Amino acid sequence: MQRNELCWCGSGKKYKKCHADYDERISEMKFDFFKGQVRPPRKVINNAQDIAGIRAAGIINDGALDLMDEMVKPGITTAELDQAVYDYIIGHGAIPGDLNYEGFPNSCCTSINDIVCHGIPSKKVKLQEGDIINVDVTTVLNGYYADASRMYMVGKVSPAAERLVRVTKECMEAGVAAARAWHFVGDIGAACAKVAHENGYGVVTDLGGHGVGKGYHIDPFVSHNAKPETGMLLVPGMTLTVEPMINEGTFKVFTDKTGDGWTVRTKDHKLSAQWENTILITETGIEVLAH
After folding, report:
1. SS3 for 103-128, per residue?
2. N or C, which end of the chain is more exposed by having fewer CB within 10 Å?
3. What does the longest C-alpha to C-alpha distance in the chain come to?
4. So what's the pLDDT on residue 16?
5. pTM of the model
6. Which residue intervals of the chain are DSSP H helices?
């Protein structure tokens, strides 16, 4: 495009003042086909207005999870947690991203013990002393999405459960630290898996992180067990989730088709944990937009 035309990113700036240098750098890069290295499509690159929108959604999302910090305790039902998430997000002028997404019936996911993800809140399920639970919340504000989850230990848990929760957070933090502009998505997974495997844990590969922001689940797919320097190039303006699912035993999982059709469990029914952040890739590092 011509340098004095408005930039393709929708910023309203002239191309020469916006993404001209970026496009030049991309055009000069050589991608390794055998490593699956790919250029990021323009549609996954956010302008300043987009980033502000995702950041605002993230603030509400964080508030809903802060509320879970106060509420998670023995005896509470997962339905009560779900209702609180719904009320908080709606009360702040936003929409729960999970609600009715591809038929999902609730406003958050509540995944307990051997449930890896997509646990459905229920009035029949009360948290018990010793449980570990992941609460996963997505907020949509003015069309922008932010997605994060946290682990909670219910009362006093076993040393093994505490260790899994702690190491899983370390896996996520290692993945976030590896996310850098002009490096590759595979670097994130390599960093997550290194921490997990050093601690003797399995890394779920059937599910992973994803681009998020102008849509819920968009490119790129973020594997948490990958080879470095593989996959999509990370560039400034991309927003994505880092959300390793780490299992106490095997990495293998299954979806409970005889139940609700959503709940994913560990194949060996050992414990699983997950932490999730939405991050923005910048020229100088990352910014956490939802945690």
Report:
1. HCCCCCEEEECCEEECCCCCCCCECC
2. N
3. 64
4. 96
5. 0.96
6. 20-28, 48-71, 78-91, 159-178, 185-198
